[in-house]
């Protein structure tokens, strides 16, 4: 079993690796506050939000083990290395402990690995002391490109590779999680995100090598209920 994967197949163990995620543009502070309360109650790993909510979430979660997670370069990854690094530094200053950044997808696809690596390294440097997860957007990549992205993320010292934003043409698959785990080995984190909406799917991702799950349907996942249909995560 990969490092940090839950050893026990129960809802509390699963909750402990879920990033309770609210990334829709119209999210209100009341809704963000509800997600924070749910994360505290269920023992989720983090609450993952857009940067505008970073300080608010950090305040809501103060004194709890639940982390504040903020996305950077989201959802396209096309804002440029300096912009992503600045965004990450601001999020951390506001209280974020984990950063989920979108890779430079265009550079990766066209084979400009130097630009792609520089993008990753810039954000890694800006996030020293925080957890960095690198979003590959696997639905847009060939298997060879997924493997290259995993290697680049590992080279710069990222903590996780992550499948998806949840806002593109597809989300996490068991096959992609297995591929990513094979490339990065047993010690780096692998996060499944996008379309994980029930416990069976979440456990399948864990069995394939995921050590973190990103989901907006987190309550349904741990309760074994049928989630309400929603966009994105």
Automatic annotation (TrEMBL):
Could you list the residue ranges forming a coiled coil in this record? Answer: none
Q: Secretion signal: which residues?
A: none
The alphabetized UniProt keywords are: Cytoplasm, Lyase, Schiff base
Q: Which domain of life is it from?
A: Bacteria
Tell me where in or outside the cell this protein is found. Answer: Cytoplasm
Q: Pathway it belongs to?
A: Carbohydrate degradation; 2-deoxy-D-ribose 1-phosphate degradation; D-glyceraldehyde 3-phosphate and acetaldehyde from 2-deoxy-alpha-D-ribose 1-phosphate: step 2/2
Its Gene Ontology molecular function terms? deoxyribose-phosphate aldolase activity
InterPro entries (alphabetical): Aldolase_TIM, DeoC, DeoC/FbaB/LacD_aldolase, DeoC_typeI
Q: Which Pfam families match?
A: DeoC
EC main group? lyase
Q: What is its main location?
A: cytoplasm
Q: Does the keyword NADP apply?
A: no
The record's Gene Ontology cellular component field reads:
cytoplasm
Q: Which residues form the active site?
A: 100 (proton donor/acceptor), 162 (schiff-base intermediate with acetaldehyde), 191 (proton donor/acceptor)
UniProt-listed Enzyme Commission number(s): 4.1.2.4
Instruction: Name the GO terms of the biological process aspect.
Output: 2-deoxyribose 1-phosphate catabolic process; carbohydrate catabolic process; deoxyribonucleotide catabolic process
Q: Does the keyword Disulfide bond apply?
A: no
Q: Which reaction does it catalyse?
A: 2-deoxy-D-ribose 5-phosphate = D-glyceraldehyde 3-phosphate + acetaldehyde
Q: What NCBIfam families does its record include?
A: deoC (TIGR00126)
Q: What does this protein do?
A: Catalyzes a reversible aldol reaction between acetaldehyde and D-glyceraldehyde 3-phosphate to generate 2-deoxy-D-ribose 5-phosphate.
Q: What is this protein called?
A: Deoxyribose-phosphate aldolase
Q: What is the lineage of its organism?
A: Bacteria, Pseudomonadati, Pseudomonadota, Alphaproteobacteria, Hyphomicrobiales
